[in-house]
Structure formats: structure tokens, C-alpha cells
């Protein structure tokens, strides 16, 4: 809360987190942004690089998306752009408040092809509940396939009928440790 963030879950802490990221990213050799215990309301935020070294986001608290249903329709909540050597860890959580978006009946936003290449990404100690049966979903581009993906100790349940599943299209990688759902890598 060195940058003015409030851990009450109601006060917008977006600028504080953005400032912390900018300072850590620009520090020679990189840095770590710590989200301490508490609940932090975060509006749309882009974690932008390139950074001057490896950078980490250690989430020990809870990051909360806005409650506004218009935000759920129109906005991207958290985005990472042009960042290499990123690690995300901690015992906290991201709460995108998806139930607000799931309840919206008239959602008319076309999905376009991406020009994003994901490579050398590690997903480790992921646990939680999925709103969709496909709890792990890598639908990567044929033009820019995902490469070097590592899944380690994944434990996701599905909050509907049936078992959670994995979908992998145009992705190369490996899986280690517990894999629930079974890995498609």
C-alpha cells in the first residue's frame, strides 16, 4: 500500500498498482510487485513492457474487477503486453466477478483472430472452479501456435454436471504433477 492502494475492496486501487508495476518494470534487473493481503478493486489495467529484467507479480490478496455490468461487456480487465520473463505467484486470487458477465443475455461482441504468440509460459499450482466444462482451454492460432507451455499441478473442478475437460489446439508443451482435468498436452 506504499503507492496508495486501499485494501477495502471498494476504493479503486488501479493507479497504485499501475505505478508499482511501472517502477518494478523500469528497475534495472527487474523487480517484484507485491499485492498484500486484503481486497483491492482494480479497473482495466495493462501490465506493459518491455521491462529491464525479469518481473514478478506476487498476489497475496484478492484483486477484484468492478461490479458494473457495463464493464463486464465492454472492457478487458487485466492484460499483459510485451512482457518477457514474467512470473505470477502468491496465495491470493483474481476475482473477475464472472457471474455478472455470465448472466448477461445479450452479448454481441465478435471474437476476432489474435496476432498474439504465447511461448514459454508456465502454469503452476492452479486450483479453483470453472464455469465451463472445458476448464483448461488452449485454442491457439495455426499461424502463431502456442509453444513451450508447461502445466504443473493443476486442480480444477467444474461447477456443472460431468467432469472438467481440457482442450488443446495448436499448442505444444508438457504437463507434470497432478492434472485435473487430464492434460491434453
UniProtKB/TrEMBL annotation:
Q: In its UniProt record, which GO terms are filed under biological process?
A: carbohydrate metabolic process; cell wall organization
Cross-referenced InterPro entries: Glyco_hydro_28 (IPR000743), RHGA/B-epi-like_pectate_lyase (IPR024535)
Pfam hit, one: Glyco_hydro_28
The residues covered by the Rhamnogalacturonase A/B/Epimerase-like pectate lyase domain are 2-46
Q: Which domain of life is it from?
A: Eukaryota
Q: List the PROSITE patterns.
A: PROKAR_LIPOPROTEIN
Q: Please give the GO cellular component terms listed in this UniProt entry.
A: extracellular region
The question of whether Secreted is a record keyword is answered with: yes
Key words of the record = Cell wall biogenesis/degradation, Glycosidase, Hydrolase, Secreted
Question: Which locations, inside or outside the cell, does it occupy?
Answer: Secreted
From the UniProt record, which GO molecular function terms apply? polygalacturonase activity
The Swiss-Prot or TrEMBL record describes its family as follows:
Belongs to the glycosyl hydrolase 28 family.
This chain's protein is named: Exopolygalacturonase
Taxonomic classification: Eukaryota, Viridiplantae, Streptophyta, Embryophyta, Tracheophyta
Amino acid at each position: 500500500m506504499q503507492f496508495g492502494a486501499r485494501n477495502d475492496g471498494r476504493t479503486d486501487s488501479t493507479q497504485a498498482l499501475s505505478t508499482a508495476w511501472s517502477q518494478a518494470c523500469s528497475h534495472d534487473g527487474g523487480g517484484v510487485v507485491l499485492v498484500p493481503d486484503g481486497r483491492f478493486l482494480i479497473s482495466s489495467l495493462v501490465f506493459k513492457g518491455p521491462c529491464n529484467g525479469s518481473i514478478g507479480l506476487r498476489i497475496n490478496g484478492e484483486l477484484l474487477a468492478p461490479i458494473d455490468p457495463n464493464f463486464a461487456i465492454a472492457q478487458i480487465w487485466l492484460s499483459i503486453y510485451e512482457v518477457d520473463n514474467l512470473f505470477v505467484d502468491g496465495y491470493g486470487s483474481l476475482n473477475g466477478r464472472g457471474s455478472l458477465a455470465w448472466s448477461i443475455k445479450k452479448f454481441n461482441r465478435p471474437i476476432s483472430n489474435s496476432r498474439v504468440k504465447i511461448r514459454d509460459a508456465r502454469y503452476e499450482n492452479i486450483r479453483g472452479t470453472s464455469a465451463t466444462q472445458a476448464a483448461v482451454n488452449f485454442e491457439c492460432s495455426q499461424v502463431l501456435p502456442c509453444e513451450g507451455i508447461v502445466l504443473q499441478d493443476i486442480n480444477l473442478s467444474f461447477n456443472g454436471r460431468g467432469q472438467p475437460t481440457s482442450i488443446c489446439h495448436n499448442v505444444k508443451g508438457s504437463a507434470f504433477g497432478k492434472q485435473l482435468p487430464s492434460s491434453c498436452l
